[in-house]
Amino acid sequence: NAGVTQTPKFQVLKTGQSMTLQCAQDMNHNSMYWYRQDPGMGLRLIYYSASEGTTDKGEVPNGYNVSRLNKREFSLRLESAAPSQTSVYFCASSAPGPSSLDSYSPLHFGNGTRLTVT
Amino acid sequence: QKEVEQDPGPLSVPEGAIVSLNCTYSNSAFQYFMWYRQYSRKGPELLMYTYSSGNKEDGRFTAQVDKSSKYISLFIRDSQPSDSATYLCAMSARRGSNYKLTFGKGTLLTVNP
């Protein structure tokens, strides 16, 4: 059971270059997310997709676009990379919220893509 | 004031010590409180969650929520070198709304053999 798979693991870009980060999950989850993690800033939500066919902005969407290709795959695109986008990017997925009030449906994270923009 | 504040550490303890990790928050609407553990160069994974106030125990780990003080804690008993990781607190006001999850910045814990 692979869980959430992210590719590539590492990437170096020059300012202005574009790239797409790929994410796929095999847990049949409805919701998928893209986060970035920076030292001293914690995890910040870039975009999310509550279900196939929908996407919404998170806390820090500027400079990014997303595509929910199907239920399994959710990609993140940097159209014109900037040094401020140097970060570790995590994709996550979660099942629909459980029915009981005191239950929680956790995020399942991939192992990240380490991106450096020079 | 940030919504969630977490002691940054880093924290270094000897094996067998009791570890206390803490977060404070300002949003009184938070009802779901989670602790995620993140090993180096890995993604975070859920360790424990608590709904509303009270304590929850799972083996060597105890999660505590004090809503009156807006303060949550994670205690690790008999800490092991394998507990060395970054611990992230996270909070949400709504069930099933992971897109409304607010994370702390994380505390790096090292348990020395």
Summarize the structure.
Chain A has 118 residues and is mostly beta strands. Chain A contains no helices and eleven strands. The N and C termini of chain A lie far apart (36 Å).
What would the keywords be for this entry?
heterodimer, A: 118 residues, mainly beta, 7-stranded mixed sheet, 4-stranded antiparallel sheet, 49% strand, globular, B: 113 residues, 6-stranded mixed sheet, 11 strands
Describe this structure in words.
The complex is a heterodimer of chains A (118) and B (113). Chain A is 0% helix and 49% strand. Chain A has 118 residues and is mainly β. In chain A, strands 2, 4, 5, 6, 9, 10 and 11 form a 7-stranded mixed sheet that branches. In chain A, strands 1-3-8-7 form a 4-stranded antiparallel sheet, with no helix packed on it. Chain B is built from no helices and 11 strands. Chain B starts with a strand and ends with a strand. In chain B, strands 2, 4, 5, 9, 10 and 11 form a 6-stranded mixed sheet that branches. A 5-stranded antiparallel sheet of chain B has the order 1-3-8-7-6, with no helix packed on it.
Biggest interface, residues from each chain: A-B, 31 and 25 residues
| Approximate shape of chain A | globular
Radius of gyration of chain B: 13 Å
Quick check: average pLDDT of chain B?
Answer: 92
Element order of chain A: H for helix, E for strand = EEEEEEEEEEE
Instruction: Give the biggest sheet of chain B.
Output: 6 strands, mixed
The gyration radius over C-alpha positions of chain A equals: 14 Å
